[in-house]
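Hi W.,

Here's what went into the run:
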Amino acid sequence: MDPELARYLPILKWGRGYTSTALSNDLVAALIVTVMLIPQSLAYALLAGLPPEAGLYASIVPIMLYAVFGTSRALAVGPVAVVSLMTAAALSNIVEQGTMGYAVAALSLAGLSGVILLVMGLFRLGFIANFLSHPVIAGFITASGIIIAASQLKHILGINAQGHNLFELIISLVAHLSEINWITASIGILATVFLFWVRKGLKPLLQSFGVPSSATDVLVKTGPVFVVVATTLFVWGLDLADKGVKIVGVVPQSLPPLTLPSFSPDLLGQLLLPAFLISIIGFVESISVAQTLAAKKRQRIDPDQELIGLGAANIGASLTGGFPVTGGFSRSVVNFDAGADTPAAGAFTAIGLAIAALALTPLIFFLPIATLAATIIVAVLSLVDFSILKRSWTYSKADFLAVLATILVTLALGVEVGVSTGVALSVLLHLYKSSKPHIAEVGQVPGTEHFRNILRHDVITDPSIVTLRIDESLYFANARYLEDKIHNRVAGDKNIRHVILQCSAINEIDLSALESLEAINERLGEMNVQLHLSEVKGPVMDRLKRGHFLAHLTGKVFLSQFEAVREVGSGAALNNTPG
Amino acid sequence: MDPELARYLPILKWGRGYTSTALSNDLVAALIVTVMLIPQSLAYALLAGLPPEAGLYASIVPIMLYAVFGTSRALAVGPVAVVSLMTAAALSNIVEQGTMGYAVAALSLAGLSGVILLVMGLFRLGFIANFLSHPVIAGFITASGIIIAASQLKHILGINAQGHNLFELIISLVAHLSEINWITASIGILATVFLFWVRKGLKPLLQSFGVPSSATDVLVKTGPVFVVVATTLFVWGLDLADKGVKIVGVVPQSLPPLTLPSFSPDLLGQLLLPAFLISIIGFVESISVAQTLAAKKRQRIDPDQELIGLGAANIGASLTGGFPVTGGFSRSVVNFDAGADTPAAGAFTAIGLAIAALALTPLIFFLPIATLAATIIVAVLSLVDFSILKRSWTYSKADFLAVLATILVTLALGVEVGVSTGVALSVLLHLYKSSKPHIAEVGQVPGTEHFRNILRHDVITDPSIVTLRIDESLYFANARYLEDKIHNRVAGDKNIRHVILQCSAINEIDLSALESLEAINERLGEMNVQLHLSEVKGPVMDRLKRGHFLAHLTGKVFLSQFEAVREVGSGAALNNTPG
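Here's what came out:
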């Protein structure tokens, strides 16, 4: 087997060793996931502003393509809450919801996102996702959960309301509150309360009856299916659709259709940034689920290949009537817990959903929209987690600021601005922190070869020597700070004859910093002060040798700080004649 | 004396000890700088697209305000080449050159820039300037020098040509080449050649006559004055203005007028970004000159106070008919070399220029524009220095890329896009570099307590232990990389029971990295592998103690790597029974 081919087609690895045990495990997992996915897919299509069948379609071909190209054995790919919200946010800025153009734009968004992911995978650009810090993601997910929940309240209450951010939504909800449909509201609120109870109350109850924990977990996940069946029967039996309860209505009985996204350069231009953000957010969500599950079985995940898998899945979605997809947390965990052994479980799930799309759609004609909204609300409120605010406050104020800004901006100005602000702010805060590195003036601990901060320890110093330990790599953002620090330390003290930079914590010196060191060396020279370095790391030294700095250095480079002080100190004592 | 007041008014410090020696030194320096500044000020006003008197005005009040608020004793503030170019670039996008609106917009730009500098100084935001890396500045200055020289060719040749970037300029020059005025061209080319000769050939000549080096330096700087006088007399004597040679013409005889910039929100909005870039570039240029000169006399420079000084100077320029100013390199060096002792030299220079503005302007009526263009070209070509390309190529490819992009984008798309691209690219490259930190797997050097890279040294390892030394602080951009690295190292090797992270080079762990460590700890736990840390720095450890990570850590934190391996290794040997 060609190893290069196997890298791009992981199916070649696991497919060869496929056993009948794996087959039966995969089939069982697929059945459970299929049952769970039917209501979830319909609901996320609703959230994305698309007809319900789009949710089913988005779960069929993408999951199969991921099975071929992805490296995770348990990841279940399909519509997920945050990506669906971002899809709605991106599209409703451009085309009107409910139009044909909206559905076509959703295909383009999925296709564009697929191409972006694929390109990132092929060129190994996965590192771009690293610019999303954990606190920013946590803040973003929390804020998105709140917006999603708020956006579904109108379906629960049976009223009209719109808005791209939380405040617009709330104002619109309040303005339309008089139009409330009480039957819809009763169904919606009961469904929501029931689903919350299933999450919180059912598991302990079942366990008290002695049902094993693994089974209760799976049963809890099928709660939405029960609500779907019950409320559909209820609406059908009591003819509530005639009383103003909005229902799903006609859903075509069809396999996923072959579709072509719009290639309008204008549309693609407008969708580029949203597609990029959706790709990154989707990738980050997916890879963290994949790695968590892979660790449980000591399996490997290749992030670059994951990009290719998700890219293929999204391109698949764009060609078969779907919308942007990614690896979902809850469905993947169910898949894993239900015993999925290989990506074949995903393929079987796809077959299950295809059967549902072909045969079962007439059964959901009377399914109330309020029920779908209830499943969304219950699902996303588990994403809302303000503890990150407390965690970050305790650990680091810079991280706290990034979280807070991400949450507030996302709520106030929407998902795209929110996540962009978070990324920009965390980059700026990081640069700011490293622009003022910790620089300790150190002295010798008596009787040892160790050097410690003169402010914290009782150490020996020599008035003619200043030793500074810089606890940060030197690069453009802090190069000038070092110049200022050294200049101001030396300019005021005429006893100083030697400055030693202890470089033990310097992992890199970029060209800006090198030029700053040259300027420092020259300026110290003007003041008749020698500059020395000590404990320079190998790779840093290798690089310094490429420039002229070492040739012009007024002092020396010492292997250890101790050696530096011993040599320079005695030299200074000899030379240090008055005047 | 109130020390807080003295910080904001450095004049209170040096003013009290002002001596008659300092007075005579300052007067001599001021005379020399004044003579040099007259043609330079006129020329830079031309470059900024403003009438010549604006250059004189911009050198009078700003230099006095800097004398009060600035901390450098030798810095000479006024119009400089790059800032004048940026002024022209910013304004000609918005208003037509030569109109009254253009001059008023220049006042607004100076005022806005002054306020930005002042705010940065008062809130100690000088670190923002650090995001301009040295290579980006070098590339930007070089590209600007080329654009400036190209923009002056039309004056040398006596033709019309326009363009915001190099290519537009060249195309426009070629298109108008047939309109060349040969008399203008002769004056322009001769003046240029003469000025180049003064720079390169005059000094050795004078020195061969035994003139001391300090005097030759000053004489060389007065070359432009000689050319101004000679060409003015020439044009006047031969009535060349009637033959199509463009001259300066009527310049009002006046002290700097009191002016009010436009406060139109629309205009200020459009000028905000250019004003910000001008402020940053100007500050960086100014502070590096100030520090270089201060070092020669062991004087201190306070960067935040420098911002205040430059801010005051620019606000002064906006209220007295000027345009954006900063501390210039060549004038400051002349000031220093001529013996300026205190900022009073600047004030005396201002008085000299005020006298020139009042009395001497009729004398420059016949001064050809081509002469001013020649002085600009010769001045800026000394800024053009492609050696940074070679330097950066040798030292670091990332820095090379940033320089090259800055030069090319500045030439192709203009100064604002150029410098913004440079900054964005250097930030991205920095994040990219630190997103894939050097992680070495280390083993014990036999017979020592040292641990070295297993790929480079012959070391002892234990199959049940993996020790990774991470040569970088851990933060969001590299947190996931570490997760991948550790996961993939451990997932494939079932012998591993312990992972030790040697943290000696980790200066910081942000919240993202902390959460990654928690995820790593948990995932390793799933694989039945313990995670240990060794050689964690004090501040990092302090912060780790604030979270729950240490409580959940499956392994221990060791003071030294040696201790870690000794304890964990023997434990592993005891527990490591087959199966």
